[in-house]
Specification:
By secondary structure, the chain is of the alpha+beta class. 29% of the residues lie in helices and 27% in strands. The strands form five sheets. Strands 2-15-16-17-18 form a five-stranded antiparallel β-sheet. A hairpin with a 2-residue loop joins β4 and β5. α1 packs antiparallel against α2 and α1 packs across α4. It starts with 16 loop residues before the first helix and ends with a strand.
């Protein structure tokens, strides 16, 4: 989008945050005519931006008296004003506190070669971050303001109007012309509930990343039934980074950031644990192999006792085993529990069986050691 008028009123194609920053700075310094000019320019580009209209209303009222507080417009509901104030705060905070170049989200431990980008959502800050896979190292690309569940995050039950916390993947892309106007430019459904959600008996469905209805530019931070919602302009930009079946979406209540050195140390420790598991499987020493499985282990159909019995029977029939892991990804689950979601393509060979499949494991810390708590097809 080209710049407008001059540097004093320029609008960025990255969203309205920079313009809002300048408008509020003008208001703080009592440059109300300048603030009004900037706001009118902003609304030319974002005509459905309700926050912009509220600011304009305040500035027009200021000609009749002092601008005492944000949201002086008569007749506006308390709920609507509170939502718009919260949006203003979230947008400005996100603009001012962008990720540092020497830090990365803790969750992106390893992206597979096929995962060109990853998405990280911070519900507390109402912000979505996009990271590029730069030869295995996450590189910041873009960030956007988002809306999430009316009741907050950490979804547990169908209809609780919360956004789930966890590691998810985009399963498909639905164009806007196939959806109701509520979803705007389109939608990216997520695989909620994932394997761990089901194990924890979390319920619900239909958690999507999607756009905004046509008469609205954006919504307040807490305004969806659980989905993550972007302005249509931002959803269209995000579409350039999302590949259904590949792109991970990690949703956190508050993103944890690591220095690159700390990120590398966490990544290396888990890689060593996975390689040790792989080698011990090849050794056909079942006792050693089973030390990698947590006491709480459960597959889709077996607990640890049944799993151990099955593996002993299988290994007894093998003269040799070769296991190769390809397309490995590792994403740390947000939250207090130390857990990492590991996905890979497993190529297995033995004297009586050859197969290849995508597998997913959930690794947890048990007595200070990484152990597998879940294993199944991906």
């Amino acid at each position: 989008m080209p710049a407008v008028a001059g540097p004093s009123t320029a609008i960025s194609d990255g969203g309205p945050e920079a313009a809002l920053e300048a408008i509020f700075l003008d208001i703080e310094n009592n440059r109300l005519d300048s603030a009004l000019t900037r706001t009118e320019t902003l609304l030319k580009y974002y005509p459905n931006f309700r926050l912009g209209h509220l600011i304009k209303g305040d500035l027009l009222l200021s000609h009749a008296g002092a601008l005492k507080r944000f949201g002086n417009v008569d007749g506006a509901s308390r709920e609507n004003l509170d939502g718009l104030r919260a949006e203003a705060i979230a947008r400005l905070r996100g603009y001012r506190d962008r990720p540092k170049t020497n830090s990365v989200p803790r969750y992106l431990l390893e992206m597979s070669p096929g995962q060109a980008y990853a998405v990280v959502v911070d519900t507390k800050r109402s912000r979505l971050y996009v990271y590029r896979n730069d030869k295995g190292k996450p590189r910041f690309v873009a960030d956007y303001y988002v809306t999430h569940g009316k009741a907050g995050s950490d979804k547990w039950r169908e209809g609780d109007k919360r956004t789930p916390i966890g590691v998810y993947h985009v399963t498909s892309a639905i164009p806007g012309d196939k959806l109701a106007d509520l979803y705007g430019s389109g939608a990216f459904p997520l695989n909620y509930p994932n394997e761990w959600d089901k194990r924890e008996k979390r319920t619900g469905h239909g958690i999507w990343l999607h756009g905004t209805q046509s008469d609205t530019y954006s919504r307040p931070p807490l305004a969806s039934d659980g989905c993550v919602v972007l302005a249509n302009q931002d959803f269209n930009a995000l579409s350039n980074y999302v590949t259904p079946g590949e792109t991970p979406v990690i949703i956190s209540d508050q993103v944890e950031w690591l220095s690159l050195d700390s990120w590398q140390a966490e990544r290396s420790a888990l890689n060593k644990a996975i390689e040790s598991w792989r080698r011990d499987w090849e050794s056909r020493d079942t006792d050693r192999y089973l030390t990698h499985y947590a006491s709480s282990f459960h597959s889709d159909q077996q607990d640890r006792t049944a799993w151990a019995k099955s593996k002993r029977q299988i290994n007894a029939s093998k003269d040799w085993v070769k296991v190769r892991l390809n397309e490995l990804s590792m994403f740390r689950n947000p939250g207090s529990e130390e857990m990492v979601v590991v996905t890979f393509r497993q190529d297995y060979q033995s004297n009586n069986l050859n197969d290849s499949l995508r597998k997913r494991q959930y690794w947890i810390k048990e007595q200070g050691q990484w152990k597998i708590a879940y294993e199944g097809p991906a």
